[in-house]
Specification:
Blueprint: E1 2-8, H1 12-21, E2 36-40, E3 43-49, E4 82-84, H2 100-110, E5 128-143, E6 148-160, E7 176-180, E8 189-191, H3 199-202, E9 207-211, E10 215-227, E11 241-250, E12 258-262, E13 278-292, E14 295-311, H4 314-335, H5 346-367, H6 379-405, H7 416-426, H8 433-436, H9 442-447, E15 456-457, E16 464-465, H10 493-503, H11 509-569, H12 581-588
Parallel strand pairs: 5-12
Antiparallel strand pairs: 1-3, 1-4, 2-3, 5-6, 6-10, 7-9, 8-11, 9-10, 11-14, 13-14, 15-16
Helix pairs in contact: 4-5, 4-6, 4-11, 5-6, 6-11, 7-11
């Protein structure tokens, strides 16, 4: 509040002494007083800022000033009555705008004899309390192969410098000042798990703020590379969650010299910028005290900030997992396409080699992004190993089906039991009918239908083929064809009877009989060739259709195995990690 002080004196010389003593000998007021004087006749009007009330100010002096005549000025005493001017009362100190010269004077006074190499405490046995506030701004880059995380963060450090304090009244009301941080003593707070110790390149050199009580505030902005053990949940890659941390502590001062404490009651993620690949799921702070062999006197205090990260698997699913599954399915379908009757399968071998090479290249792409560790095998690597094994098993099954089909080329007839299983139980099953109906039409199945006595009728020629040999009346030629139940005898009785009609007029009986005999032999040879060819085709057809049924069954089996394997390996309903004390201790130590 504004108060008016009126001082009366009889002697003009006494005014000079009062003007000298008044600013320095005021008592009874607990806050700074700004005095403005002006002379009017024999009165001095003084305007001051003080608290409410009335108090006495005494001034005493000796020959500290002289008059114009050079004679000493006698001592005086004066009483000052402070009267309330009626202005609104305010108990708080409100400084006025200070002149730049006051800031210069204050800066010179503060750092005239200041040594920033010494810990700013009056009692060296007492620890200096340093409070720290951490703000995680952004996760810039994660290198799984190098096991490092590049983070951008802000730090706020608070401590009290007992050598830096002043009276704002003496410096134009300045209650705080900004000075370069290099001029001050600063706690050597470092990131203990820093992967790059070149701090000068990654930390912005800022100014510190000092108030008149000696309280120092230092703001730091840094980009630091921290180490992080990515083998924690690497077995679940690319559905893994990782826990990383930053440890801040003094490098040279133990707990008896610096007491480091975190600032509570603030949200450390309030300024966090989201990362597109990694989701920040949890954040926690914990203070540790650790003894080192080099410094057994007192433990070192560190503040560790833990944060858990969950990887977004979308990139790996759409770029690697799904294309690999498609390649595997196409390869399996190609492996079990129908063979040619000659048994050529060079295109299948080429397809298998191409598929294996494609999968191997994708595995190499993954290997560049994950750390090389012998402790665990990533889930995605297991997935690709499984796909390669499925392709290998499918390729190994191809020669089996090929050898099964090639039995028809040597004339070996399919066993009735096998024919029943393939053509009656499987091919005609309603579930699989749509898969096999194209190859096994009704006409083809009719050709394979057996009659009694193991006799088969060929629809194209109408000829009857039955096992054993039958005597003929006209031509006693027995046609033998493969003695292992693969030969069939053709009876020419009907053909012989018809030929007699055309040769009955031959005068030369011997000639006619010889010609007739030769004719029968030729006809029987032709008939035998036709029967043999059709018999071979029938046998090949049986094995070909049976092999196709087997191939389709194997193709369905491997496709189902591929789908189930991929679903089992890549389905993870795991919840986000919560940072507990036990988990944080396990991660750090």
């Amino acid at each position: 509040m504004h108060l008016l002080l009126i001082i009366n004196y009889n002697a003009i010389n006494s005014l000079c002494i009062l003007s000298t003593l008044l600013p320095t000998h005021l008592s009874g007021c607990s806050i700074p007083i700004h005095i403005y004087r002006f002379m009017k006749m024999n009165k001095i009007h003084v305007l001051v800022f003080v608290t409410t009330g009335v108090f006495m100010v005494s001034g005493a002096g000796s020959t500290v000033a002289q008059s114009e005549s050079g004679r000493p000025v006698p001592s005086i005493s004066a009483s000052i009555t402070i009267m309330d001017s009626g202005i609104e009362k305010n108990r708080e100190y409100v400084p006025k705008e200070a002149s730049p010269r006051y800031a210069k004077l204050l800066y010179s006074a503060l750092f005239k004899d200041y040594q920033n190499e010494l810990r700013p405490v009056l009692n060296d046995s007492e620890p200096l309390k340093v409070a720290m506030q951490f703000w995680l701004k952004q996760i810039l880059k994660i290198k799984e192969k190098d096991q490092t995380v590049l983070v951008y963060c802000w730090l706020e450090l608070y401590w009290k410098d007992e050598f830096l304090f002043w009276n704002p009244a003496d410096y134009g009301g300045i209650d705080r000042i900004h000075v370069p941080a290099s001029k001050l003593w600063k706690p050597d707070i470092l990131v203990y798990n820093n992967a790059n110790m070149n701090v000068e390149e990654n930390e912005l050199d800022t100014y510190a703020i000092i108030n008149y009580k000696g309280e120092v505030t230092l703001f730091r902005s840094m980009i630091t590379d921290i180490t992080c053990d990515f083998s924690f949940r690497l077995k679940d890659f690319p559905f893994d969650q990782q826990i990383c941390f930053l440890t801040f502590a003094s490098w040279s001062f133990d707990g008896s010299k610096i007491r480091l404490t975190p600032v509570n009651g603030t949200d450390n993620l309030e300024l966090y910028i989201l990362n597109t690949e990694w989701k920040l799921t949890d954040f926690s702070t914990k203070v540790y005290e650790k003894m080192y062999e080099c410094c057994p006197n007192a433990p070192f205090i560190d503040i560790t900030y833990f944060f858990s990260l969950k990887r977004s698997p979308s990139y790996y699913i759409f770029s690697l997992v799904i294309p690999s599954a498609f390649i595997t399915v196409v390869t399996i379908v190609g492996f079990f396409t129908p063979h040619s009757t000659t048994g050529e399968n060079t295109e299948k071998v080429s397809l298998g080699v191409t598929a294996v090479l494609s999968t191997a290249i994708i595995m190499l792409m993954i290997g560049d992004n994950i750390p090389a560790t012998a402790e665990v095998i990533p889930l995605l690597s297991k997935y690709y190993i499984g796909l390669i094994f499925i392709i290998f098993a499918a390729a190994l099954s191809t020669p089996f089906t090929l050898s099964y089909q090639m039995r028809g080329n040597i004339g070996e007839r399919m066993s009735p039991k096998m024919r029943y299983i393939l053509f009656e139980r499987i091919a005609k099953n309603p579930v699989f009918n749509w898969l096999f109906a194209v190859q096994l039409t009704k006409k083809n199945l009719g050709r394979l239908k057996p009659y009694e006595n193991n006799t088969y009728i060929f629809e194209n020629t109408g000829a009857t083929v039955r096992p054993g040999s039958i005597p003929n009346n006209g031509c006693k030629t027995t046609l033998s064809y493969n003695t292992e139940n693969k030969a069939k005898i053709v009876q020419m009785e009907e053909i012989t009877g018809e030929l007699i009609k055309y040769t009955g007029d031959c005068n030369n009986t011997a000639c006619s009989q010889f010609a007739f005999k030769r004719l029968c032999e030729c006809i029987e040879t032709i008939e035998q060739s036709i029967v043999q060819t059709q018999e071979e085709r029938l046998i090949k057809f049986e094995w070909e259709q049976g092999t196709r049924v087997i191939e389709k069954m194997m193709m369905i089996f491997y496709i189902i195995v591929t789908v189930l394997f991929g679903t089992f390996m890549l389905t993870f309903p795991e919840e986000d990690i919560k940072l507990t004390d036990e988990l944080m201790d396990k991660t750090k130590f």
